[in-house]
Write a structure and sequence with these properties.
This protein is mainly α. It folds into four domains: about 55 residues; about 90 residues; about 210 residues, Intergrase catalytic core (hpI Integrase, Chain A, Orthogonal Bundle); about 30 residues. About 55% of the residues lie in helices and about 5% in strands. It has a three-stranded antiparallel sheet, covered by helices on one side. A three-stranded antiparallel sheet has the order 4-5-6. Helix 4 packs across helix 6, helix 8 packs across helix 14 and helix 12 runs antiparallel to helix 13. The longest helix has 26 residues.
Length: about 425
């Protein structure tokens, strides 16, 4: 009688002649989270158990239920399959030097849009996605929030991601045309929120009251240096350095030295993302004092970063950290809590206008606020770019986005025009005289 073979059922016989039975998944199943199972020594029971487990595998392959630790099976011919391939080859890909193709912040933005696309059409084959269905998706996302709309910015980002995803599909020869081309939704207007001095003061006061001095310092550094949130969270003690005289003009060194308590200009050393060059951004007055106080506290708490998680100490009494992606998420939640407290305080004080402003601010707006503040002081674009880290060739374009029309800019334009026109008027008056 022929012996019946049960997939994945394996018997192992020891030196004493006793056979133990196991269900051992294939390499493909192991990759997707299926684990080996010991089935005991009774062959009949082992066969029945193996058959039952194989039925679970078939159900999983058909898209049905699965053990918790097993990955969801994705049909490669579907939108979900395309998304999985894009994540594997592009989002998790590396360059020749081993560095990631995409920055973590970019991956986060892409993943948000990809999750929306997968929820919309993940189970469908690629041919299901047509221009007409993309238009239906666009209209649904742009509907009122009460009807399921997600807002202009999120809708535009999702449609852009769809276009990128299907361009990838074309490169992979999976489809011939891109249904997301010309999705006919204009880009949303650029965010133009600028923190007022009152908002900065309110946030720093609320952070101090909440026992979060690092949130207050982060706000101050964001405004004073225009650096990105992630870069500030990674800022270490070693990046707070003395700046030698040969790195600046003599008159600038003299000005900064006069502002320094030890007559030594100091600043934070940052690496510009565009050029990869390291530069030192000077810090003065209260900002410098607060950085040095934070470094003293950090060293006492066994921390090497300037900013700390003030409310979540680590084991052994060590100071908490805003470390990694989870740390940045905690920082954002702490910032939101401080913002809520600051807005409530403003409301209780009868300052409704400030409360409304506080409710709408985000940490990233400090970067824009820094640029606008320096622009209103009359600094040239290339000087601002040196601080914030943008490519000089792109500075004018960025300033157009980062510098909304303000009273300060209008006043400066009139003042400059008046000042430059005055000599002409004087010459004209002299000629008439």
């Amino acid at each position: 009688m022929a012996k019946i073979r049960i997939p994945c059922l394996v018997g192992k016989t020891n030196a004493a002649g006793i056979t133990s039975w196991y269900w051992q998944p294939s390499a493909y199943l192991r990759k997707n989270g299926w684990k080996a199972i010991s089935l005991g020594k009774n062959e009949t029971d082992a066969i029945n158990a193996a058959r039952a487990q194989n039925e679970r595998v078939e159900e999983w392959k058909d898209g049905g239920s699965k053990p918790r630790e097993v990955k969801k099976r994705i049909n490669r011919g579907t939108v979900a399959g395309l998304i999985a391939r894009y994540r594997e080859e592009i989002m998790e890909g590396t360059k020749q030097d081993g560095s990631p193709v995409l920055a973590d912040s970019t991956k986060k933005t892409y993943n948000t849009a990809l999750r929306k696309l997968e929820a919309w059409a993940g189970k469908h084959p690629l041919a299901f996605i047509t221009r007409s269905r993309v238009r239906v998706l666009r209209n649904a996302m742009m509907a009122d929030p009460e009807k399921g709309g997600i807002g202009h910015h999120a809708a535009h980002q999702t449609l852009k991601m769809g276009r990128t995803l299907f361009a990838f599909a074309i490169d992979c020869e999976l489809v011939e045309t891109n249904p997301f081309d010309n999705f006919r939704l204009a880009a949303p207007p650029p965010r133009d929120v600028i923190w007022s001095p009152a908002a900065r003061e309110a946030m720093m006061a609320a952070a101090a009251a909440a026992g979060m001095p690092s949130i207050a310092l982060a706000v101050e550094l964001g405004f004073a240096t225009g650096q990105r949130e992630a870069d500030l969270l990674h800022l270490s003690h070693r990046q707070y350095v003395a700046i030698p005289e040969h790195k600046m003009q003599p008159e600038d060194f003299a000005t900064l030295a006069a502002l320094a308590p030890d007559h030594t200009p100091r600043g934070i050393r940052v690496r510009q993302r565009k050029t990869k060059a390291w530069i030192e951004v000077p810090v003065v007055n209260d900002t410098r004092n607060r950085i040095e106080a934070a470094i003293r506290s950090a060293r006492a708490g066994g921390v090497t970063t300037v900013l700390m998680d003030d409310t979540r100490p680590r084991e052994g009494g060590l100071q908490g950290l805003y470390e990694g992606k989870a740390g940045q998420t905690r920082f954002q939640r702490d910032f939101a809590a401080v913002r809520t407290a600051a807005a409530a305080q403003a409301e209780n004080s009868g300052d409704t206008e400030l409360a409304q402003e506080l409710a709408g601010i985000e940490f990233r707006d400090l970067r824009r606020t820094c640029v606008v503040f320096m622009g209103e002081l009359g600094l040239d674009a290339h000087l601002i770019a040196a601080i914030t880290g943008h490519d000089i060739d792109e500075t004018q374009k960025i300033l157009k986005t980062y510098m909304p029309r303000t009273t300060g800019r209008a006043a400066r334009a009139i003042a400059l025009a008046s000042a430059r026109n005055k000599p002409r008027q004087d010459d004209s008056n002299q000629a008439e005289g």
